[in-house]
Amino acid sequence: MNKFFVLSKSIINKTPFIKKLLLLFYYRIITKSVLFYRIKKYVFYQKIDSKIDNKKLMINVGGGHFFK
């Protein structure tokens, strides 16, 4: 198995086009997975937050940032 990785690494390093394609492919997968994670996290916290704050009266008194 280790020989396979060494051979594939040498092939990829010799062909810059394939290396560029693989990097682009990995970049797209990573960005999509990070985006998916952030969306899931946002939706999860919005559902939890709305259930908790649904019964509370909140008043923002004063200027500045408002954090729930």
Provide structural commentary.
With 68 residues, the chain is mostly helical. It has one domain. The protein has 2 helices and no strands. 0% of the residues are buried. The mean pLDDT is 78.
Topology summary:
Layout: H1 2-14, H2 16-53
List keywords for this structure.
68 residues, 0% strand
Structural shape = rod-shaped
How many helices does DSSP assign?
2
Task: Calculate the mean pLDDT score and round it.
Answer: 78
Main sheet? Answer: none
Structural class: mainly alpha
> How far do the termini sit from each other?
53 Å
Radius of gyration: 24 Å
Beta percentage is under 5%
Question: Which series of helices and strands comes N to C?
Answer: HH
Number of domains: 1
Count of DSSP E strands? Answer: 0
- Which regions are unreliable across 5 or more consecutive residues at pLDDT < 50? none
